[in-house]
Amino acid sequence: MGRDIAAGTGVPHEDESKAARDEATRSDPIPNAEFERPTFVVGLGASAGGLEALERFFQNVQLDT
Length: 65
Fold this sequence. Notes:
Elements: H1 14-25, H2 51-59
């Protein structure tokens, strides 16, 4: 199936683009889902010599976090 392109622009018509965005952002909730607490993901990075700083950081982080 071909795409309907706005005259001479090479860009899909606005209504087609909006429909595609709406479909892509739609999410259905998980039925009967129970979560005890939220889960967080954290990324840490370091350049050369940063390993020592990361070791000190983790030595001071509470164990239950």
